[in-house]
Amino acid sequence: AGAETVKRAVQLDVASRFQESLVCYQEGIDLLLQVVKATTDEAKKHRYRQKISEYMTRAEDIKKHIEKEKQDGKYHKQIRIEENATGFGYEKLFHEYLTEIVSEVWVEDPYIRQVHQASGYLLYNFLRFCEMLVKGPCKVKTIHLLTSYDEGSGRSQQMTVLEEIKQSLSNYGVTLNIDFSSSIHDREIRFNNGWMIKIGRGLDYFKKPQGRFSIGYCDFDLRPCHETTVDVFHTKHTKKM
To answer: Which residues form the MIT domain (predicted)?
Structure first.
């Protein structure tokens, strides 16, 4: 298993898929270290240790390369969520980027509207996203939301729900600033530690639950997803709205 994992790491390395390659190198090294512990043949141990040393050196080089890309604002990681895939709740997708220094978040999504609209449950999804931020480990103090007004009679409910979310967040010491734009099209989420995440479907990449008491209604990790692509970037300075 260790040999297969490092073989995959090398393939990803050659393909310049460095983030995925690094994960495979790390997993492969751990597996090979277990093999070394269980091996009594000293010659084999020596060969394994040499290979492990080589892989560790390459993994360290990749780490430095990724860090440089972050510093230069060139880092890019892409995640593809397949149709009906599960296990992609907000915590799974965002948690590694929500470091303790995150205190400010920007959300751009034109469809944070009614809960019963055809596109999904985006007001509930936005609430779930805010709950994740409140739980930490980040220390979010301000959330900026840029969205568009609901058309027609739904605007009143949209404003009422967003105001309720705003008041609830204030109980946790978090300020929600809400702005509206009639021309907004892009969907992205930015953190003030330099991470920016673009999701093709915004926060609404989950399928409609089968019912209010069906598995996946409450736990988004169990909710089937629509097919979409997630692009993660790192920039020196996160622009503000």
So the answer is: 1-71
Average pLDDT rounded to a whole number, residues 210-237: 88
Q: How far apart are CA 45 and CA 43, in angstroms?
A: 5
pLDDT for residue 75 is more than 90:
no
Asked if residue 216 lies in contact with residue 127, where contact means CB atoms within 8 angstroms, the answer is: no
Locate 148 and state its tokens: 């568009």
Cα 231 from Cα 83, distance rounded (Å) = 17
Asked if 216 contacts 99 with a C-beta cutoff of 8 angstroms, the reply is: no
Residue with tokens 């702005």: 179
Class at the top of the CATH hierarchy for domain 1-72: mainly alpha
Q: Report the distance separating Cα 68 and Cα 76, nearest Å.
A: 12
Domain assignments of the chain as residue spans, ordered by start: 1-72, 76-234
Instruction: Output the average pLDDT for the chain.
Output: 88
Distance CA 41, CA 39 (A): 6
Residues 11-43 have pLDDT tens digits of 998 988 887 899 899 999 999 998 888 888 888
Alpha-carbon distance 166 to 43, whole Å? 65
Tell me the residue ranges of DSSP E strands in the chain.
75-81, 104-108, 142-147, 175-180, 188-191, 195-199, 228-234
Say if CB 120 and CB 204 are below 8 A apart.
Answer: yes
Reported as half-sphere exposure (CB side, CA atoms, 13 A), residue 89 has a value of: 14
Q: Are 157 and 33 in contact (CB under 8 A)?
A: no
Q: How many CB atoms lie within 10 A of CB 175?
A: 13
This prediction has a pTM of 0.71
Q: Beta partners for 76?
A: 233
Assigned CATH topology for domain 76-234:
Endonuclease; Chain A (3.30.870)
